[in-house]
Write a structure and sequence with these properties.
The chain contains 16 helices and eight strands. By secondary structure, it is of the alpha/beta class. It has one domain: Rossmann fold (3-Layer(aba) Sandwich), CATH 3.40.50. Helix 4 packs parallel to helix 7 and helix 11 packs antiparallel against helix 12. This is Fatty acyl-CoA reductase. Catalyzes the reduction of fatty acyl-CoA to fatty alcohols. One of its GO terms (molecular function) is alcohol-forming very long-chain fatty acyl-CoA reductase activity.
Length: 426
């Protein structure tokens, strides 16, 4: 798996600056298995040789059986802590959580927020209450958190601080992770999760509406800036034992805010300039906030008419032409994904984030360049355009050379689509 899925990734092939990949050694394991599923030999090797640990393995699906999240995100983290507790050379342990572990609060400081019960009791109550996260008892236990993922991360944070505060531990909380700003290439992305997937569906003309507060800050952080930040944090934790940070937010809303409306508008401009050759209908209009009953009704009508009915119509045409039906299935998956995102696109949080810049601003200019992670220097317009182009290049696998052809195609699609709407209106 190391060679086939990781080292062959474009992360390494797009920008290979003589990387010493031969130094990477893989060990077999499973974060949800007892003892991480490590063999005795691998465990002894790690205990004897490792000095810096980055723990980011987790289930990042937002919904699902709570017991699965506890097994992977809580017990898995506990197993990592137990392993690290035995390491003879350990200098830094970086645990990657999420800025939304305490999203029931609208202002979140760089500290661990204690649960009503300790972590062990919370786990016991969660497992005895049942798997239904919509039950009254479970909602009370989750203390306002919207899903199993954020709840499991809050439990894990409490677990590591309760039992392993003697370790050189720092908890890092990124906000919404988005495609790369620089490395391995501007806009690089390899999955359709989160913002990239939503923008992709919009750029294809499939998505026409989503619950978004266009006036709220979109707290986004590019994946390569997170990676660089983690390296810097790991170095600082090991090199400055007397100045260790307990919690560090990797967020953008305070230092370099951009609203959802502005970010989506920037992305739409890029999609107009370089449309996808696979676009099925024209882009939706500029996004507007769904404020009040009128906005809500407009959203629901658009969702059912322009998403659901359109999907059935397209599948009917595909069937008549002898092709496999797919649009209804895509639309259902899109709605499920949007339901997950909408809690985070319709609200706004304030994440205090001075701890990282206390570290970053003491780096040399050369290290700041090599480990680019200063969100204050990000131009959101340029980034949004590159993000869209990244989804076009790396998710849709479309070369920039077909942009002119795509623009011609969308001209005809727009003409026929508008004629179709005109006929329906009659």
């Amino acid at each position: 798996r190391l060679d086939d899925e990781i080292l062959d990734s474009k992360v390494f092939t797009l920008n290979n600056n003589d990387l010493k990949l031969s130094k990477i050694v893989a060990v077999s394991g499973d974060v949800s298995s007892p003892g991480l599923g490590l063999s005795d030999g691998d465990r002894e090797l790690l205990v004897r040789e490792v000095s810096v640990v980055f723990h980011s393995a987790a289930s990042v699906k937002f919904h699902g059986p709570l017991n699965d999240f506890i097994a992977q995100n809580v017990y898995g983290t506990q197993s990592v802590m137990q392993l690290c507790d035995k390491m003879t050379k350990l200098e830094a342990l970086v645990y990657v959580s999420t800025a939304y572990a305490n999203c029931s609060l609208l202002e979140i400081k760089e500290e661990v927020y204690k649960l009503q019960q300790n972590s062990a009791e919370t786990i016991r109550l969660a497992q005895t209450t049942g798997a239904d996260t919509d039950s009254q008892a479970m909602r009370e236990l989750m203390e306002g958190r919207p899903n199993s993922y954020t709840f499991s991360k809050a439990i894990a944070e409490n677990l590591v601080t309760e039992g392993y505060s003697h370790l050189p531990l720092v908890i890092v909380r990124p906000s919404i992770v988005t495609p790369a700003v620089k490395e391995p290439a501007p806009g690089w992305v390899d999955n359709v999760n989160g913002v990239a997937g939503a923008l992709l569906l919009g750029a294809l003309g499939i998505a026409r509406t989503m619950e978004v507060n266009c006036d709220a800050k979109a707290d986004l952080i590019p994946v390569d800036m997170i990676a660089n930040s983690l390296v810097v944090i790991g170095w600082h934790t090991g090199a400055h034992a007397n100045d260790r940070k307990k919690v560090i937010h990797l967020t953008s809303g305070v230092e370099n805010p951009v609203t959802w409306g502005k970010f989506l508008d920037h992305s739409r401009v890029a999609a107009v300039k370089a449309p996808s050759i696979r676009m099925v209908r024209p882009l939706a209009k500029n996004p507007t906030s769904l404020k009040g009953p009128v906005g809500r009704v407009n959203h629901l009508v658009t969702k059912w008419v322009s998403h659901v009915l359109f999907a059935y119509f397209v599948d009917l045409i595909l069937t008549l032409l002898g092709y496999k039906r797919l649009m209804v299935k895509v639309t259902r998956k899109m709605h499920r994904a949007f339901e997950v995102l909408e809690h985070f696109t319709s609200k706004e949080w304030v994440f205090h984030n001075r701890n990282y810049y206390d570290i970053h601003d003491r780096l040399s200019p050369e290290d700041q360049r090599l480990y680019f992670s200063d969100i204050r220097r990000l131009d959101w317009r340029i980034y949004a355009e590159n993000l869209y182009l990244g989804t076009r290049r790396y998710l849709l696998k479309e070369d920039d050379s077909n942009i002119d052809k795509a623009q011609t195609r969308i001209t005809y699609i727009t003409l026929f689509y508008n004629l179709f709407l005109l006929v329906l209106s009659k």
